[in-house]
Amino acid sequence: MTTPLKLTRSKWLKLETYKKIREERIPDIIKPYAARTYPNILETIGDTPLVRLNRIFEGIPGNFYIKLESGNPGSTKDRIAHYMIEQAEKRGDLKPGGTIVEATSGNTGFGLAMVAAVKGYRCVFTTKDKISPEKLAALRALGAEVEVCPSGVPAEDPRSYYSRAKQLAKEIPGAFYVNQNFNRDNADAHYHSTGPEIWRQTHGNVTWFVAASGTGGTISGVARYLKEENPRIKVLGVDAVGSVLKKYHETGIFDPSEVKSYLLEGVGKNIITGNTDFELIDHFVQVNDKESAWAVREVAHKEGILVGFSSGAALSAVKHAAHMFHEKDVVVILAPDHGNLYFSKIFNDEWMKTHGLM
Ligand SMILES: Cc1ncc(COP(=O)(O)O)c(C=O)c1O
Fold first, then answer.
1. CATH of domain 42-71+193-354
2. Comparing C-alpha atoms, which of 147, 142, 149, 138 is closest to residue 122?
3. Correct CATH for 77-177 of 3.40.50.1000, 2.40.240.50, 3.40.50.1100, 3.90.226.10
4. Whose CA is nearest to atom 13 of ligand 1?
5. Residue 78 in contact with ligand 1 by CB distance below 6 A
6. How much distance in Å is there from the Cα of 134 to the middle of ligand 1?
7. 195 ligand 1 Cβ < 6 A
8. 218 CB under 6 A from ligand 1?
9. Of 19, 193, 194, 338, which one has the greatest count of Cβ atoms within 10 A?
């Protein structure tokens, strides 16, 4: 049994004084969060900061903001991982004691492994050999089993990370194959969270949304929400040189001859996914590895913001599209993950030189 704390008046006054001093020392910006606690790590997903970019786009008309998805425990993919698993549980596709199987370039895997740790599932992932060592280490740190597959092979090749994930899902009893490329809960997660956040954070003033497209979930879910709020909002998709998305968007042709290997992680595709709503995307810009890597370094130096490779791709795309923006535009650029996942790559001069980026 606990004894109720009895305070004399003088002790009480002393405590009140300490409390006041402490509160005065907490800067205003911290106060609203100071008393917040969360029942588990999954509840911290979302509500990420939107930060004005003041120097990197000097000379380009418009007001530029970056949505820092590194404010999630892992990346923007935490949102879809949480949502896709909860929906699978509701449908009965994933049962207690089941195994989560997915092909991942790293970030979705991190989100899924985090959800699995909290909820007690096993995780088996396939990934590509170009995954950054930091991302691979993070997956294994969270207890996931990971098979590394060759990149640069066609999706239907039995060695590809897609084929291997499908195969593993067939072999493992109680497996749920998440399939982020075709599982519409992916785009829906962004429709229900990222889109409304951007709308609220810009007080409905957003005029452009810029995001790298991989599975297409982020760009399609956010675009659907924003265009429902204001159909005049424009959406700029970011594709990689060596991917099929831009040509498919412009011509309706899936051209396998476009497919080349590249270093960017999470940007572009060698398939047409079920989560890319091409009609919601106004333009696509293709960017290369070099300009994307240098944009990552530039935003770190000029704005003090560490973001990942695909964020560099999106920043670079804004420069390509500079002629499309006007003085009053409010442009929101999504930064999917944190720069600390790329210290051994973009921020490593040796790696940059080895890959001809420096
Ligand atoms: C780092 C990174 N950026 C961008 C994307 C693309 O997002 P989406 O798959 O929602 O199109 C991904 C997807 O894997 C990613 O891992």
1. 3.40.50.1100
2. 142
3. 3.40.50.1100
4. 266
5. no
6. 16
7. no
8. yes
9. 194
